[in-house]
Design goal:
Blueprint lengths: L1 H18 L3 E2 L6 E4 L4 E5 L7 E8 L4 E6 L6 E5 L6 E9 L2 E9 L4 E10 L2 E5 L2 E20 L4 E17 L7 E7 L4 E7 L1
Antiparallel strand pairs: 1-2, 2-3, 3-6, 4-5, 4-7, 7-8, 8-9, 10-11, 11-12, 11-13, 13-14
């Protein structure tokens, strides 16, 4: 009976301690927030080790913290309690994505105001067709430029959109090597193809 009361007391104390910590996991796929402890935990295991750089910028645009992330770690914890009260931008960068979180730090908590996700477009050539695909959280400028082996621009496409699923017929181009550059407001990728 004494052991049962002791176990119940430990469970009650543990429950009380857990409810005193507010964990927000809805802000992002990349990290959890312990709001009232002003901590962020990057969930590297959820992103297949894609996170490369974690940066915190103040309202003046100055980087107050920046770190390359060790891709072999499962989770990385950052303590934000030393930052002054104010608005910050938390930027999480990977090879194919960028997340930008507008964040307010108050005297006792961290609040996330807004999140933007930017994913690099994908493109591939199948036979004589170039396929470009991408989905963005907001509208972005998408540019597709094709240059011949002399560096001359032979094709140009620009569109402001939040979804791209375009097919470009390359049949009319002369045989040879071409450099394709697909860029958005946040990414630029290039690939050399032969026709």
């Amino acid at each position: 009976m004494k052991k049962l009361i002791y176990t119940a007391a430990i469970v009650l104390m543990s429950t009380f301690q857990l409810t005193a910590i507010t964990v927000n996991t809805d802000s992002s796929k990349s990290f959890d927030v312990i709001e009232n402890e002003k901590k962020i935990i990057l969930n590297l295991s959820n992103l297949n080790n894609e996170i490369q750089i974690f940066t915190i910028t103040n309202i003046e645009g100055e980087a107050v913290f920046s770190e390359k992330v060790n891709k072999y770690e499962k989770d990385v914890e950052y303590d934000l309690s030393t930052l002054a009260i104010g608005l910050y931008t938390i930027k999480i960068e990977g090879e194919n994505f960028i997340e930008i979180h507008t964040t307010e730090i108050t005297a006792d908590q961290v609040h996330f105001k807004n999140v933007e996700s930017h994913i690099a477009p994908t493109f591939q050539k199948i036979n004589e067709i170039l396929i470009v695909e991408a989905t963005f959280s907001n509208e972005e400028n998408v540019h597709v430029n094709i240059y011949n082996s002399l560096g001359d621009l032979v094709f140009k496409f620009t569109e402001k959109t939040n979804t791209v699923n375009k097919k470009f017929n390359l049949e009319k181009l002369e045989k040879g090597n071409y450099n394709i550059i697909v860029s958005t407001d946040f990414f630029s990728q290039s690939k050399t193809i032969s026709i």
